[in-house]
Amino acid sequence: MILSVSRRTDIPAFYSDWFINRINEGFVMVRNPMNHNQISRISINPDLIDCIVFWTKDSHNIFDKLDKLKDYNCYFQYTITPYEKDIEKNLRDKSEIIDEFKKLSEKIGPEKVIWRYDPIILTDKYTEEYHINAFSDFASTLKGYTEKCVISFVDMYKSITVGMKAAGSLPITDLTMKRMGKEIAEIASLNSMKTATCCEAVDLSEFGIEHNKCIDDELISRILGKDLKIKKDKNQRENCGCVSSIDIGMYNTCSHTCIYCYANHGNSRVQKNSLKHNDNSPLLVGEINENDIILDRKMESYIDNNTVEQLSLFGEV
User: Which of 296, 281, 242, 312 is nearest to 45 (CA)?
Assistant: First the structure.
């Protein structure tokens, strides 16, 4: 099983104590986003968890807890973008976040810390030239600390339309994506990084940019030194290459409150849910009540036990 922690919120930044408590107790509970009273109980036994994929914009709060995850394999999707407080309202200074990225890379390895420069938003302030210059600065700073950069161009979800309009968001054409993609790929290559796109229909393969799998069976196989038997995640968008995973996050709980975030539907909801969070609850938000129906999630390891043992990039297995 692959555990996603989490597409829906930044658990490493805001809920790392809760997550470690879940690790210690051996299970986590997740409400069905479409059916509030249906709860899945998910075992997080290391024998079942092939890999944990963390998503974060700031690893500071989880860094000192990583030793508690010694029985698990993991890697990080780590977003660093060039926006100021008008776009990313509650992030710390980017220089501090870059320092955290480097510390994390030094601890777990550059192959396990994937830099996300996404989403790319164009405005009169955040122009193509601004992005290319910012990307170049970041890439040179992060050289040697990551092997890969993932980019995407902002998707105009209904929930972010008002905020994006207020920020002066401009339309992005396929021609613009190709022009920017070409320059980004060249800069990334100069800094020893591969480039991939996340959930983009546009084909940038002529510039050496592949379609990404953020939940990546190939990377996980490298980490494990074993093959996986796993299928594409049928619950994700058409252009998403991710393989199957279980996400333990919850919408409307990320206090970064970036205006482009599809997972938040208003700051008031985020604040309300934050007040209901309890580090000792099996749920990220709230408690179990008498009307809830708890179902044990069917889980299995995806490791192909017929894999011939080999020497992996991470040592002998």
Answer: 296
